Amino acid sequence: MAGIRLKYANCTDAHDTLQCLRAAPFDTLNSAFSSLSFLPVIDGTLVPEYTSVALSKGLFVKVPLLIGTNTDEGKIFAGKGVNTTEELAGYIEQQPYIRTTNNETVQDLLEAYPQPGSNSTSGQSDDTLPLSATYGAQFLRTARYTGDLGATHFEDVSFVFNNVLGQGMPSNAFDVQPATREEIYKQLGDLMSRKWMSFAATHSPNHHQVKSFQTVWPAYNLKTPQNMVLDGNTTSFVENDNWRAKALELIIEGSLDFSR
Predict the structure, then answer these.
(1) With the C-alpha atoms ordered 78, 82, 86, 91, is the resulting torsion angle positive or negative?
(2) Which residues have a Cβ under 8 Å from the Cβ of 72 and sit 6 or more positions away?
(3) Residue partners of 17: CB distance under 8 A and separation at least 6
(4) Parallel, antiparallel or unpaired: strands 237-240 and 226-229
(5) Which of 38, 68, 139, 235, CA to CA, is 20 to 30 A from 226?
(6) Cβ proximity of 145 and 173 under 8 Å
(7) What separation in angstroms does the CA of 13 have from each of 1, 33, 253?
(8) Cβ distance 97 to 145 under 8 Å?
(9) Are the CB atoms for 82 and 88 separated by under 8 Å?
(10) Burial tier of 87 (Cβ tally within 10 Å: 0-12, 13-18, 19+)
């Protein structure tokens, strides 16, 4: 990693590389650092174990959690320009969090994330989305895989805080057309913010006092796993947690291969 910084700053052959870095222009250093990924390091104290190992040992703080995901959130940080299955395999192998390039693991992932439209329940909302050459023919497939490995933070913040005016935001999530959709969004923002406050106060999201919404958000359990779907296009509802089950189980089983 240090070598990459030296290369970007043209300091590789300098007699005093530290002084060369200190004298390098800001834009040069900024480009050098922006090109790198900084991942958590297991030090035995602050980060004692991989999260999957800690979870299996019960080494975590036992407090109620309200967690979730957003539809299509992998599109925000998925790699672009992937056009073939072979290129997708290379994309998977080159990610900084991958600890192994086992061909069998990569092949299993490719099968678990088939190309959109291949008669599979891929769990994505817009399989027919036309893509430009910039995104790549395999962009939706890449986004599904990438989105299942992490979370796109902040996407739901406008609704969680019921920020109907879009204050402090680059754009207002509630500024949509037609007016009927805008009203549904506002109702969802009110419901979500109340659910979050209810959970913070009572450890249950069901004391929101929105009389028009009576669906109970069930506590998660492994025997009958269910999630609450908070939808801005239809009525929110509870669904079984079987979303891309095969692919997610593959990632869970190989957690250490993904630095998890």
Answers:
(1) negative
(2) 124, 125, 126, 143, 147
(3) 6, 11
(4) antiparallel
(5) 139
(6) no
(7) 16, 19, 45
(8) no
(9) yes
(10) middle
Query: Is the backbone peptide bond immediately before 178 cis, with ω within 30 degrees of 0?
Result: yes
Angle (nearest 5°) at CA 75 between 126 and 37: 165
Q: At what angle do helices 103-112 and 245-253 cross, to 10 degrees?
A: 160
**Residue owning tokens 């250093």:** 29
Which pLDDT band, with edges at 50, 70 and 90, does 224 fall under? very high
**What DSSP element (H or E) covers 189?**
helix 179-202
Rounded CA separation 147/71 (Å): 9
Q: How far apart are CA 192 and CA 155, in angstroms?
A: 13
User: Domain extents for the chain?
Assistant: 1-38, 85-152+244-259, 155-240
Q: Do the beta carbons of residue 106 and residue 250 sit within 8 Å? A: no
Q: For residues 191 and 155, is the Cβ–Cβ distance under 8 A?
A: no
* pLDDT at residue 100, rounded to an integer: 65
Q: Which tens digit of pLDDT belongs to each residue from 88-139?
A: 999 998 887 777 667 788 899 999 999 876 544 444 444 445 556 788 999 9
Identity of the amino acid at 251: I
85 contacts 142 by C-beta, under 8 angstroms: no
Q: What pairs with residue 240 in β-bridges?
A: 226
